[in-house]
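Appendix B, record 7
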Amino acid sequence: MPDKTVIHVIDDDAAMRDSLAFLLDVNGFQPEVFESSNAFLAKATNSVPACVVSDIRMPGMSGIELVRKLKSDGIPCPVILMTGHGDVALAVDAMKAGAADFIEKPFDDAVLLGAIRSALEARPVAQGDNSARKEAEARLAELSPRERDVLQGLVAGKINKVIAHELSISPRTVEVYRANLMAKTGARSVSELMRIALAAGL
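Structure tokens (predicted):
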């Protein structure tokens, strides 16, 4: 029987760590839990982790800072960030820092498991490989000019009200455009939409 894939869970909430460890265990993964980014880094330096699931707001090093640290240290490990304070600006920061995904608490178990499996299957894109960019551009090809305007506002981390004001439309209309963006690109979450936009160079 092959070894179970080790998933590192970092959260300063003990109840959250326990519930995530249980969820991962019953779904065939081997969870290792840590109460902080520093505790994880002290243990994880000896091997490259398969995948990290981390809270974004913690005492000490935040989840986004952890993503940047792993990247600067050349550790090619996908990090899925969780937050109870989900907003577009945070998702953008997380994706730009290099997070594999961004999930808002409370989330459905299937959402987290799907994000982990996607992160494990994804292969790092080689520097000279334009396939990811071409695929992202193809997913944005059907957008209208106004939908692109709204998407650029989202990538800049702006809230609906600000985007609406800048484009002289109502916040409700921005919500309609956001729904169109999700439908046309096939994005299942804001973080996936951000990843597509960033990959396309927006």
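Remarks on this record: The chain has a mean pLDDT of 85. The CA atoms of residues 88 and 159 lie 7 Å apart.
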